[in-house]
Amino acid sequence: MRITVEKQPIARVEKPFIVLTEDEKWELHVPQATCDFTSGPALDASTGDQRDFAKVKVCKMRSDDKDPLDVVAYNTLDAEDERITTDLQSALDDGKDLVLCPGTFYLTKTLVVRFPNQVILGLGLSTLIAPQDGSPCIRVLANKPGVTIAGITVEGSMQKKSPTMISNFMGSTNSDGVRSLIDFGEPGKEDPGDPKNPGALIDIFARVGGVNLEREKVSTDILIRIHSGNVIGDNLWLWRADHCQLRPNELPNNPKLPLYWQVRSGECGVKTALDVKGNDVHMYGLFCEHTTEHQMIWSGSRGGVSFYQCELPYDVLIGDFTGYVGYNVEDTVTSHKGRGVGVYSNFQVDKVMGDSGFLHPEDGDIDLIHPFTVFLDGVDGSGIKGIINEVGETADFGRKGQPCRP
Hints:
By secondary structure, the chain is mainly beta. Helices cover 5% and strands 37% of the residues.
């Protein structure tokens, strides 16, 4: 095994954290990004910002949390949800950082980050449930470098043609009409970012399905979209549910999962996990799972991924997955590097044979280091035909659990 450690990484970022000072005052410490030390940013007070809690909004969930087993209540927004959403946005508009306490926040409108260097920090993977009109949970406006979103779960909501009409509900959908859970930057707006002050997405769990029993109606198009340049991602798990909580008195549909419902076509709809359009975007620890089209689409240049896990959808049928792959680098990309990237098949319903694990341009500076495909499980006759650009060994039932490498 060969392990390479870069002496001067492109950038290193660290998640903000809370400190209680010796004089018993709370501070939010935001470490400064660096490309000088392989050990990462300094975590003491020598670098970065130490922000007094007078400039931080500590956000609590509603006192009467909703029970997912009560389908109507869980999917109905009310005045308390509107009040909490308005309070969060007002704090952001005042230039404050947000610290979200553990719990679930049912958003009636997108939270919009309007200032550079703002922080949204979750404790205990606080959950933001997206508005019911397809709007994202969070939108970072273009040309706002240094914004950090960390330690949260973002969850797709039940989509309603006529959402609950409360005053602050409508008007926060993405400008191009594509539904998402996080939009970092804005469609069509040039935003190179700042290499000395990159944006950051750290410890983010995005999901559609799992808890919400309305599995036919909960959906989005793309889990996370990155339009801005110079954004760093560290530990992103982007998940279309492969299994869900059982409804009351419902029997499981797969004997291998006696406690769950295994998702089927038409449920928990998501097309793509991650869509990167910005240049100089880098991901460290990226998981894209079970979406029904390309799992990842990368059209920005000079970016890359270090450690990638991708499991293709369980539930697609023959013909529904033709042309889609786990790792798609668009033809317009001039340079890209992937290190330790794997795509797995587990087609449980039909004899689906994916065309390839990876697609990338034949020209340009494209480098995939240690790519592989694996037939993890699934029906005999399914798998992944090629490794890169439809070339290479076939990962199928006969090679179950054995990686196929170029």
